Amino acid sequence: MPAPFSDPIWQKPQSAAAPQALVGGKPVDVVIIGGGIMGLSTALHAARFGFAVQVLEAGEIGQGASGLNGGQVIPGLKYDPEWLLEHFGAERGEILVNFAASTADAVFELIRDEKLAVPFVRNGWIQAAHTETALKAAANRDWQWRNRGADVRLLSQTEIAALTGAQGYLGGWLDRRAGVIDPLAYTSELARIASAAGVKIAEHQKATRLGKSVGLWRISTEGGAELRAKAVILATNAYTGDLLPGLAETIVPLHSFQIATAPLPADLAAGILPEGQAVSDSRRILVYYRKSADGRLVLGGRGRMALPTSEGDWAHLERALLRLYPALSGVGIEKRWFGRVAMTPDHLPHIHEPEQGLMAVVGCQGRGVGLMTALGERIAGYLASGDARQLPFPVSPIRPIPFHVFRQVGVAATIAWYRTLDAFER
């Protein structure tokens, strides 16, 4: 694709691991298909448990959504503690609440402990409310998390205006456990430390066939290689194909588009996100934004379902930018890019284990950086111990979405309708 339509601002650090050739031969303990955050986190921790691990990445490390996302590290799930306790019961619900609360810590502690070359700011995430209904929801979320000792607080209209510099918010909610990173640097550094731990990482190795013979899984690649492994983890998320029948039909892939301004002039930069928080708003088709390490404003949101064909496909984000920050009308948009994300019908991550030694994880729901980092460690712990209590989410059967072939058409229509409704709530 031409550079203007896939031109992120994120950077691989100079310390990025060199690509490794795929070496067949004797069986390995674990083959992980997918070299994003989930796959690399699982690989790192599995290697440190003593497993021989091979990662297969169809493209290059960081080429998918793991390296192209907005770099917001947000703890929690779409659902708050009371909902999780009600729907999963006291025991499982409590496990999920505690796990959800820990996911941002997993990222920032890894960056600190491993001395990763990853630009970051950990001053929190703001959920910005543009209606009274959204403000009431923020107050309920604040009450639930404050009761559990989380470092959170409600923001008044004056406070959110000071923290964001944006127009149109009635208030909001600040979660100081959150922060922002360079996602490409983070994914690249995960690959580097995984490689240092003994993980073999092969790029441009798309897995095309998966089967089992004589107690071992056999994985064939597009290049004609065949690997054998005791266990296989599918960490392909929105890039899931037909390797495991029915899995791709359990998710709806969506495109998340992003833009980045030129570096902001000093007089404007001082009043825009002065403390460096990330922001997501409360609209039906939300936008999210943050500053980058080099002083740009980065803003993202849902894009068209088809691949972009011109700069006009990012126009809805440029309109959102100027709605929030009219003073940026003279600042150019220098970068535009997109990545593919996956939505599950219940807005929760799904863990599947259709056969012993075969697992798949799908569904990030906008919190993938922290969620998949933390979940990778748990999956590795489960491989090492066989103890299902390592897994915060219950293992579920693969249930394809009915009429999946029509689902994306419906989602596209819903997005268009929601954009219309949002326009009336300016």
From TrEMBL:
Entry GO CC: cytoplasm
Start and end residues of each FAD dependent oxidoreductase domain = 29-380
Q: Keyword Oxidoreductase on this protein?
A: yes
Q: Which key words tag this protein in UniProt?
A: Oxidoreductase
Q: Which InterPro entries match?
A: FAD-dep_OxRdtase, FAD/NAD-bd_sf
**Molecular-function GO terms, alphabetical:** oxidoreductase activity
Q: Does the keyword Oxidoreductase apply?
A: yes
Q: What is this protein called?
A: FAD-dependent oxidoreductase
Q: Which organism is it from?
A: Mesorhizobium wenxiniae
